[in-house]
Design goal:
Blueprint lengths: L11 E5 L2 H19 L6 H8 L3 H29 L1 H21 L11 H20 L2 H8 L2 H29 L6 H22 L11 H4 L6 H9 L2 H29 L5 H29 L2 H22 L6 H15 L3 H12 L4 H26 L1 E2 L15 E2 L1 H21 L5 H7 L5 E5 L4
Parallel strand pairs: 1-4
Antiparallel strand pairs: 2-3
């Protein structure tokens, strides 16, 4: 009589303390890249005067990040899910540093002022633009590969919020460092420092793509589907397509808001410093909200309900901004609206990324996150390109803008259009998006697995 086969041992999952170093390096890189992206938007008028360009050309310094990341985003998803996290982040850090170096060269004394400065600046921005999707697509991958289930949403929140933290620094530092156009070399010299730190942390600190032992069942199968197979699965996934369009639209709206905020409020008499404060409040309250929501969904797994409620409140805040930004002499009210916009809008950013992974599992995290970002960048580029065409020349003399080439613009119509788009996408998402938590369900099958938290045994 044959003996019964012994039951297979439960899989052992393990976390490693160096996961926090990987997270810190990712955060530093994402923060630096965001600072480089938004260096000039908070001081758009001063930038136009220094380089003798129009405001449309200044907007291209921000929009090049979006335009480049649309085609390159597809390559980035392949790099993340095929070549791995380590390759993606190290490549991103060196591209980001190269972009900052070229930006600094554009204001060097030996560069002819009229013929080479602005083209060199655009080249530097383009290097940073190539670096952006490589790091922006990484938070869900870092969280999935290095962190256990009960820390995943929090880790994703921390690394995702590093990007808006960089936007916060740019909103504060750019107006502070650039009181007049001649301060441009100082501004770019300061911004190269975090790029150097991020490059060192990433190159030296990230030694491997995945830990020796996965921290969860989801991590063990995070790239189970081949890249092109995964793309096909996503395009047939109704819930994911709705999220890609609607949530991507939310990303595009926040991108346009960050890039155009100074131009919108300066025509009502608000200074660059105040515009920077509004942008900073937008980010600070978004980070605070993301921290609270990240802990909440880690405990409750209410990804979908949280995202839907916050998205709808965000649409109301966007409408409020469109109305209040038309008013002059209302700094407190404008600051409050920007704070609420960030609190409810930016706070769902990391949760939405986790929800995208849940509804698309077992497709790789880089692919599912990447396509949402590509959608967001595409819509953001369209907003930044077309919204200024809806603005009308100012007829009053209350503007605080120091315009380089061209007249100050009234942004009433563009902000109302942005609010309408935000409301439409929020309603569509709330009504039509429904999904199972596929990754959570898959990991439930391995709930008896053991999890050790400690130092790795090499």
């Amino acid at each position: 009589m044959m003996e019964a086969a012994a039951p297979a041992p439960a899989p052992v999952y393990r976390t490693y303390r160096r996961r926090w170093l990987v997270l810190i390096a990712t955060c530093a890189l994402s923060c630096s890249n965001a600072m480089c992206w938004l260096t000039f938007a908070p001081v758009a008028d001063q930038t136009a005067r220094y380089f003798h360009i129009s405001m449309d050309q200044v907007n291209w310094l921000s929009m090049v990040y979006l335009v480049v990341s649309i085609p390159f985003g597809f390559g980035t998803t392949w790099i993340l899910d095929t070549l791995g996290l380590k390759t993606s982040l190290i490549l991103s850090s060196w591209l980001n540093l190269a972009g900052c170096i070229v930006q600094l060269l554009s204001v060097a004394f030996f560069v002819p002022k009229d013929s080479w400065k602005f083209p060199l600046l655009m080249v530097g921005q383009s290097f940073g633009a190539f670096a952006q999707p490589l790091v922006l697509f990484s938070p869900t991958k870092v969280a999935a590969l290095w962190f256990p289930e009960h820390q995943r949403a929090t880790a994703n929140m921390i690394s995702s919020m590093a990007n808006p933290l960089g936007i916060l620094f740019a909103n504060i530092l750019s107006p502070l460092l650039m009181k007049d156009p001649s301060s441009m070399p100082v501004l770019l010299g300061v911004y190269i420092v975090p790029a150097v730190i991020a490059c060192l942390l990433t190159t030296i600190g990230i030694r491997e793509t995945v830990p020796p032992t996965p921290p969860s069942a989801g991590a063990a199968n995070s790239t189970s589907e081949p890249f092109f197979t995964g793309i096909g699965m996503l395009m047939k996934n109704k819930a994911y397509v709705i999220m890609m369009i609607c949530f991507g639209g939310g990303i595009g709206i926040f991108t346009a808001f960050s890039a155009l905020l100074q131009q919108i409020v300066c025509v009502r008499g608000y200074s660059n410093s105040f515009a920077g404060i509004c942008g900073a409040l937008f980010i600070v309250f978004g980070i605070l909200g993301a921290f609270v929501i990240g802990i909440y969904v880690d405990r409750t797994r209410n990804f979908m309900e949280t995202t839907k409620i916050n998205f709808c409140i965000t649409a109301l805040a966007c409408i409020g901004f469109a109305l209040v930004s038309r008013l002059s002499g209302q700094p407190v009210l404008l600051a409050m609206v920007c704070s609420l916009f960030g609190l409810f809008g930016f706070s769902i950013y990391p949760v939405g990324m986790e929800l995208g992974v849940e509804c698309s599992y077992p497709v790789g995290e880089g692919t599912s996150t990447g396509l949402i970002f590509v959608s967001g960048q595409l819509q953001g580029a369209l907003f930044i390109f077309f919204l200024p065409t809806l603005a009308q020349p100012m007829t009053s003399d209350g503007s605080a803008c120091q315009v380089g080439v061209g007249a100050a613009l009234d942004w009433t119509v563009p902000t109302l259009v942005l609010a309408a788009v935000c409301s439409l996408e929020a309603c569509c998402f709330a009504l039509f998006f429904h999904t199972e938590y596929k990754r959570v369900s898959a990991e439930g099958c391995g709930e008896n697995a053991s999890l050790l938290d400690g130092v790795p045994t090499e």
